[in-house]
Amino acid sequence: MLFFSARRKEKNESISKIPLILDKLWSEEGLQEEQWKLQQENYQTLLTRQRKSEVVIENILEVLDEYKTILEEQNSARSKEKVLVGYISAYDGSLHQLERMFRNIEGKEGEWVKQLEGIKKQLRDNMEKSELKIIKEQDITVDFNLHEVVGICDTEQKEKDGQVCEVIIPGIIFEGNVVNKAKVTAYQYKGEENAG
């Protein structure tokens, strides 16, 4: 009987320890839940930091793209400047040739006309190579994208109203863009109804 009573006592002690064991399990489970929540918060914090880093990196890449575009535009402008300098140099050389030619004229009208035509052709070829066009046409309708009207020429011919009378200073178009508008005078119709 002693054996049974010792066993019973042992079982009762074990049973009495169950609430303590359950309390420990509950507290450990609570600790695990807190640790899980902390891990989730840490994970969310890391995700937020990663998103912020990605935004910063995207901003940096956009700025770099803008700088790249600016550099490309500057390089393009430099190459255009080189073309214009080349054209101006060729133009200056042609003018110099023209000046020398006129100094040497002594009744050789046929020869200097041929030389002048050669210089004109050389200038036209250089302009075509450099994508440079001179705005110098007369008797065409005034285009305010190409022309700046600086004076008026009266006309009695109604069909000439609004056309270029004279080009005072030629304009320049480079690669399809107007660099300088031509300064022109334009015809204004002065018929009987406008006279007075």
UniProtKB/TrEMBL annotation:
<dbReference type="InterPro" id="IPR000740">
    <property type="entry name" value="GrpE"/>
</dbReference>
<dbReference type="GO" id="GO:0051087">
    <property type="term" value="F:protein-folding chaperone binding"/>
</dbReference>
<dbReference type="Pfam" id="PF01025">
    <property type="entry name" value="GrpE"/>
</dbReference>
<feature type="coiled-coil region">
    <location>
        <begin position="113"/>
        <end position="140"/>
    </location>
</feature>
<protein>
    <submittedName>
        <fullName>Molecular chaperone GrpE (Heat shock protein)</fullName>
    </submittedName>
</protein>
<keyword id="KW-0346">Stress response</keyword>
<dbReference type="GO" id="GO:0042803">
    <property type="term" value="F:protein homodimerization activity"/>
</dbReference>
<dbReference type="GO" id="GO:0006457">
    <property type="term" value="P:protein folding"/>
</dbReference>
<keyword id="KW-0175">Coiled coil</keyword>
<dbReference type="GO" id="GO:0000774">
    <property type="term" value="F:adenyl-nucleotide exchange factor activity"/>
</dbReference>
